[in-house]
Specification:
The protein is mainly beta. It is built from one helix and five strands, in the order αβββββ.
Length: 111
């Protein structure tokens, strides 16, 4: 389901080159060989940016192939921020959020 949602948000973003969508959530931790070192929550945070139809993780490696999912199975989306694009890290302009990611499924929500 998460992959479908990301794909739909990517499609909307193609028509809005003046917007960047930042998604935050959690990913399942990779299995550790040392059970004592495993985080008890079994999850780690991630941040994904969507711009002009493409997703890129700023916290985890992503495949070079744009046809591969940017998030692995088990990823959970928790919030979304709509930002003025192109993104300027020195002057980030929040337009909306935090929101539930599915609140941005309609193109009208992208202001």
């Amino acid at each position: 389901m998460t992959g479908d949602l990301v794909g739909q948000l990517e499609a909307i973003s193609r028509g809005r080159p003046d917007r960047v969508l930042r998604l935050r959530g959690t990913l399942p931790l990779p299995a550790s060989q040392d059970p004592a070192a495993q985080d008890p929550s079994g999850q780690e945070p991630f941040e994904l940016l969507i711009f002009r139809g493409f997703s890129s993780s700023v916290t985890h490696p992503t495949a070079f192939d744009p046809d591969q999912a940017a998030l692995p199975a088990g990823a959970e989306l928790e919030s979304a921020d709509l930002l003025q694009g192109p993104l300027n890290p020195r002057d980030e302009q929040l337009l909306a959020g935090p929101l539930m990611p599915d609140a941005l499924l309609g193109p009208q929500a992208w202001l």
